[in-house]
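As a warm-up, study this chain.
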Amino acid sequence: MKIVLAYSGGLDTSVILHWLKEKYQATVIAFIADVGQGEDMLAVARKASDTGADKVHLVDLKEEFVREYVFPAVKANAVYEGAYLMGTSLARPVIAKYLAQVARKEGAAAVAHGATGKGNDQIRFELTIAALEPELKVIAPWREWSFTSRADLFEYAEKRGIKLPITRDKPYSIDANLMHVSYEGGILEDPWNEAPADIFQMTVSPEEAPDEAEYVEIEFDKGAPTACNGEELSPAALLERLNSIAGRHGIGRVDIVENRFLGMKSRGIYETPGVTLLQPAHRAVESLAMDREAMHLRDSLIPKFAELVYNGFWHSPEMKALLAFFDATQEEIRGTARLKLYKGGVWVVGRKSPGSLYSPDAVSFDTIGSFNGTDAAGFIRLNALRLSLNRSLRWDG
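Now compare it with the structure written out below.
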């Protein structure tokens, strides 16, 4: 039997690789997705081999991840429950897509992942597999083995000499990619505890940020970011540049309690510096170039889009339809936004677009221009009619 494991080199998948070989007496192939974790990925691949992987596939997915997943979410202005930009949620479908491809290439009967039985990632992985390669068996060790805690995993690893990237005193669950870093577990499970200052990897604290503000200009074409400060960059390179700029100003930290798809609430700490700049910049260009009713209709669908991403339905018919609609709304979204960054804050201070619908002549207080203000009287009377009828015919006053 061949099993392809989505391997990260962390505590869970390090133990799982060894456990799969013991449990199933199987050939275990480690699949490593480089989505911009910021690690030495060749070292991760060597660690997989040292831990017992019979074969290792390392695939660079950074450009595809940003271009096909992160930027569509930026076009949608997607936010889950008002705060979470979904860095983990967006990475899972591309990782699972290639996990399935490697399994097909290797003739494997099963794939495995390290998501826990309580988390969202098991759903995201398995819904993607069901949509793309439904004949594959999915092995989820956290739903099978007798271990009940991460302490059990530490003990298993120590007995078998498996090297781990974390220690018992800092047992945080960390997920990193080019879009963000997330932190869960340990003392963070008490939502009253402030996150330790030393856990953050992408951002400085706002208190330690420069005392001088910095301005950054971001260009968009058809809603997708294309350049920073006049320099055109590939999607991954652009996001990496924005991460660096925002990170040194302490921008992009979020501490939330969110609702998991399975029903429980969980507390997460997130750093998403670059996309925290892209969101207001994109909105700023849209404010000039996007039709009002198209914008309002799109905005009404943002919660649904975010829910689908968060819950793992990227490869679903409804998501395909939404992505096509959002792309249609972005056809004329071209232009540049200028942002001011300072001590953890970001403000839009300028925006321009060659397709701007903004008319100084129509809106100016200094001149009447082409707009006939007397037309507003009839417009108001017509919109007020139902209000007046409600008052006079149904209310006693």
